[in-house]
Design a protein that fits this description.
By secondary structure, the chain is mainly β. Helices cover 11% and strands 48% of the residues. It folds into 3 domains: 157 residues, Jelly Rolls, CATH 2.60.120; 125 residues, Galactose-binding domain-like (Jelly Rolls, Sandwich), CATH 2.60.120.260; 143 residues.
Length: 448
């Protein structure tokens, strides 16, 4: 049977088939030997990505550093058998519940807070789930702090190995090194990338996610990298990349060694080299894969977004949740300082009931004392389910149900006289959109 385009897209990026979810499992002792699982992408919506990488390696702790609905996301190198996930708080307990989401919306397990260690039984020990991605949504936990994450396959604990973070001088562009498939880079925006490391590095292979892989239309809508050149100044190696959104690992014919590595695009699929896009780039040697630490740039960009909200009198909106619920309508909006957005809506009438979820990213296009105007891009799902999971490539082009429909729109916010937040869809009227024109919402408190 011929696959539909969105099904082929999901297959290319290695999504898995749905499995049934299981409830809260008691935390038990870790027994038996551990087996290693390579984590290829590791991202956090709040806090320090470098601290997150250290915590995954059991050498520290990660803090959300203010805000609610923080999310941690990891993607595995391949299908990884998982039956249970445990997270341990740095403090006495998690104040609110946390949700673990495996393979986008395929398996979701919510565990109430009030305990220092939360255990998510995502599958029976004898029938573990083949996991490719894991998202932890900390919901109303403000300033969430995690000391340890344990991923279990029955009695065996997986030794998670995240990609390394390398100190670099200067400020390389963040997009190709931020562990987020929903952001991408082109050399036409910044010119070639020059990485100046603290010490000499060996590079024998690269791992690349090509193009703009948010959905099939975005991938084909801009050129993709065909030839990537890596140079130390003394020697240059060229890497040929396939025209595919899936992760590619390519070995160099002649390994490079140097303190400075220059990355440039010399050929493209479907267009000019300067316009070719690339989502993620990692450098590999015999010890694994690494990338430059861009956490300073990511945090600076997040602070700039917060400044835009404050300039519009909406500093208390970012990293929080807005809700309007009356007159048979129920809308929820979550805007995070990492640039991600989640919108859920439901309306009922005598004729019909409509529900949707939108998961994507925003850009600030206007921030004045009267209003904040955002440009949205992402996937719209015909569902009222809590799809606040991963803003990630194939998962945004489809899920365990119908394919998400790609949507670009504009939305504005302002402070009403009564203190509520005014929300308006500024985009053109269309058959498939955000399903609302305007409403006034309040900022939700914990537990609502």
């Amino acid at each position: 049977m011929r696959m539909k385009p969105w099904q082929a897209w999901i297959f290319a990026l290695a999504s898995t088939a749905p499995r049934a979810a299981f409830g809260d499992g008691a935390s038990g002792p870790v027994t038996g030997p551990s087996s290693e699982s390579s984590v290829v992408l590791l991202a956090a919506s709040l806090g320090d990505p470098q601290a997150l990488a250290r915590m995954i390696g059991s050498r520290g702790e990660w803090r959300a550093e203010g805000g609610q609905f923080a999310k941690l996301e990891m993607r595995f190198a391949g299908p990884t058998p998982v039956s249970k996930i445990e997270i341990e708080s740095c403090g006495e307990s998690f104040a609110d519940g946390v949700e673990a989401i495996v393979n986008f919306d395929h398996t979701r397990t919510f565990v109430e807070g009030g305990k220092r260690t939360l255990a998510f039984a995502v599958a029976p020990a004898e029938r573990p789930l083949e996991a490719r991605s894991l998202v932890l949504n900390f919901r109303y936990n403000e300033n969430a702090c995690v000391r340890e994450i344990r991923v279990m396959n029955g009695a065996k604990r997986l030794a998670l190995r995240p990609p390394g973070l390398l100190a670099v001088e200067g400020g390389p562009p963040a997009a190709p090194f931020d562990s987020r498939l929903e952001t991408s880079w082109s050399s036409g925006e910044t010119g070639p990338i020059e990485l100046r490391f603290a010490s000499e590095r060996n590079v024998s292979r690269v791992r690349v996610w090509n193009g703009d892989p948010r959905n099939p239309a975005a991938f084909k809508g801009s050129p993709r990298v065909k030839t990537l050149a890596l140079s130390t100044g003394k020697s240059t190696e060229k890497v040929s990349l396939e025209d595919s959104p899936a992760a590619q690992v390519v070995s160099l014919k002649n390994p490079l060694r140097g303190k400075v590595i220059r990355v440039s695009v010399e050929g493209a699929h479907g267009g000019a080299a300067g316009e070719a896009r690339l989502a993620e780039l990692q450098f590999g040697d015999a010890d694994g894969f690494s990338g430059p630490d861009v956490s300073t740039a990511l945090r600076a960009t997040a602070e700039a977004r917060k400044a835009g909200f404050r300039a519009s009198g909406l500093g208390d909106v970012v990293d929080r949740a807005l809700r309007y619920a009356e007159d048979d309508r129920d809308w929820t909006v979550r805007l995070r300082s990492d640039g991600s957005v989640f919108i859920k809506g439901q309306s009922e009438s005598l004729e019909r009931a409509r529900a949707f979820s939108f998961l994507g990213r925003y850009e600030i296009v206007e921030a004045t004392g009267k209003r904040l105007r955002l440009k949205l891009s992402g996937a719209r799902f015909t569902s009222s389910r809590e799809l606040d999971a991963s803003v990630c490539a194939a998962d945004c082009a489809g899920g365990s149900g119908p394919a998400g429909q790609w949507l670009e729109d504009e939305i504005s916010f302002g402070r009403a006289k009564d203190g509520l937040v005014f929300v308006r869809d500024e985009g053109p009227r269309r058959a498939v959109g955000l399903d609302f024109h305007d409403f006034k919402a309040r900022i939700l408190k914990s537990g609502e």
